[in-house]
Design a protein that fits this description.
single chain; 507 residues; alpha/beta; Isoleucyl-tRNA Synthetase, Domain 1; 4-stranded antiparallel sheet; elongated; binds 5'-O-[(L-methionyl)-sulphamoyl]adenosine
Length: 507
């Protein structure tokens, strides 16, 4: 049986448009999915939108449209941009879809019947802005906005009873929460006694939600509803075979939604007797020009700004930058200058030049046909064995989500091919010895081809341009084999893959 890889992004709220944060997680998921497809695994990549709750209700009222109309409009923006930048999600789930609501209701009914959900009166602090009940201590710390005292009857999920089991699971499974700093954060949080989770909101206060199947005066709390998407999308309780084909998932999230994913969600699954996710990976945040992104500071990387960058360099190069410099472990800073620097040095200089050099020489001196590989010297053997080592490293780094390091390694290998050419000087030797120069060009091109194969998940359309002119009939299974480059094949003319940017003009 094939290995499986089920990867998810958070469901994005429809009260804001896509920005660099949502973009980053979704690109990361897309690239992981693509590498796993390369390994011929059974891959499922899920993303979508989170559409219930107070904020949507308020925003739609303000705009004089129905909440559903509001959701349709904003959800579409996400689907549009993902398509525009060529992401390949297998599914897009919306929490207002019937397939999702059905599963949420089924779980609520099951848990209610099992006595895992009970009704109780609460009197205490409530943050209207965050839609959360908070403790006296949290109130005193003052980190929540629009806090008021309320007294309300609601339904509660017995989350507290799973505290010890959850701690044990986190301690025994090193890969469950990654990276390690986030794991420690969750374990730290679990040192205080866990409370039961309020999972309803009275309709008198909020009507835009999934009605509780056992009490029509209440709707489901938006987080309890939204988290269930990860299993409703793959047909939990509807089609067991399909569900088991993909579950458990790898969840990619940002650091701010750690507690909901690492505490609420696993305990909900425990109560349902469902296996826990394989991994929850929480990345850091993008800052912008040294500060937290904000509309009022003018450093917010919104959809228009993103489109502008994509427009200038193409989506592929922008993805490359985001993944190489992104906040995998700690926060990262986005700066325009840094972006064009990385573009020029890695893509225009290292990769782009290498392609030009090789193609030019082959067109001019070998009638556009890939030269024959003759006797390999130590340097060619080294390039070849390094391509094998690199491929292994890439797939092993993948297990730890180190996409940044993957790109570092690949570009280092590309530099080493350039260095090889500088040592061999084929532009000089071609005038006196076509045969040995042919071996040099074959070797450089064979190495470049492996590097582009490994870059494919990050820059699919650019690398396809390269494969097309190379005309080698490559498929993903063969592309990573150095000697898979066919001698005598005719290569086509290539346009500059990554034209250089004039930094003075840009800045
Ligand atoms: N709807 C919830 C998630 C429910 S999942 C069942 C939510 N949505 S969100 O739209 O507010 O945030 C989605 C993701 O964007 C979060 O993972 C958050 O960390 C991420 N980001 C928001 N701003 C970000 C940056 N500046 N940088 C990186 N990611 C950030 O929370």
């Amino acid at each position: 049986m094939k290995n499986k890889f089920y990867v998810t992004t958070p469901l994005y709220y429809v009260n804001a448009e896509p920005h660099i944060g949502s973009l980053y997680t979704t690109i990361l998921a897309d690239v992981l999915a693509s590498y796993h497809r390369m390994k011929e695994e059974d891959v499922y990549f899920l993303t979508g939108t989170d559409e219930h709750g107070q904020k949507v209700q308020e925003a739609s009222e303000k705009n004089g449209i129905s909440p559903q109309e509001h959701c349709d409009k904003y959800s579409e923006q996400f689907r549009e941009i993902w398509k525009e930048i060529d992401l390949h999600n297998d599914d897009f789930i919306r929490t207002t879809e019937e397939r999702h609501e059905k599963v949420v209701k089924k779980i609520l009914t099951d848990l209610f019947e099992k006595g895992e959900i009970y009704k109780d009166k609460y009197e205490g602090w409530y943050s209207v802005a965050e839609e959360l009940f908070i403790t006296q201590k949290e109130y005193e710390e003052g980190n929540y906005r629009e806090v008021k005292r309320i007294s309300e009857t609601n339904y509660y999920f017995k989350m507290s009873k799973y505290q010890d089991k959850l701690i044990q699971h986190i301690e025994e499974n090193k890969n469950f929460i990654q990276p390690e700093n986030r794991r420690n954060e969750v374990l730290g949080f679990l040192k205080q006694p866990l409370r039961d989770l309020c999972i309803s909101r009275p309709k008198t206060r909020l009507s835009w939600g999934i009605e509780l199947p056992f009490d029509k005066d209440f709707v489901t709390y938006v987080w309890f509803d939204a988290l269930i998407n990860y299993i409703s999308a793959i047909k939990y309780s509807v089609d067991d075979e399909y569900f088991n084909r993909y579950w458990p998932a790898v969840h990619l999230i940002g650091k701010d939604i750690l507690t909901t994913h690492c505490v609420y969600w696993p305990t909900m699954l425990m109560a349902c007797d469902i296996e826990l996710p394989k991994t929850i990976f929480a990345h850091g945040w993008w800052m912008s020009e040294g500060k937290k992104m904000s509309k009022s500071l003018g450093n917010f990387i919104d959809l228009d700004t993103i489109r502008e960058y994509f427009g200038n360099v193409g989506d592929n190069a922008f993805k490359y930058f985001l993944l190489k410099n992104g906040p995998l472990f700690s926060d990262s800073d986005f700066s325009k200058k840094r972006f064009y620097q990385v573009y020029n040095s890695d893509l225009a200089n290292d990769l782009g030049n290498l392609v030009n050099r090789i193609f030019k020489l082959i067109h001019k001196n070998y009638d556009s046909k890939i030269p024959k590989l003759n006797k390999l010297t130590e340097s060619e053997e080294l390039l070849k064995s390094n391509s094998e080592i690199l491929t292994e490293e890439v797939f092993s780094l993948l297990e730890n989500f180190r996409v940044d390091e993957i790109l570092n390694k690949i570009i280092k290998y590309v530099s080493s091919i350039n260095k090889y050419l500088e040592e061999k000087e084929p532009w000089k030797t071609v005038k006196v010895d076509l045969e040995s120069t042919g071996t040099v060009l074959y070797s450089a091109l064979a190495s470049l081809r492996v590097a582009t194969g490994l870059l494919y998940p990050v820059m699919p359309s650019k690398m396809n341009d390269f494969f097309n002119v190379l005309n080698n009939g490559d498929k993903s299974e063969t592309i990573l084999k150095w000697s898979g480059l066919v001698e005598g094949n005719e290569i086509a003319k290539i346009k500059a893959l990554f034209p250089r940017f004039d930094m003075n003009k840009i800045l």
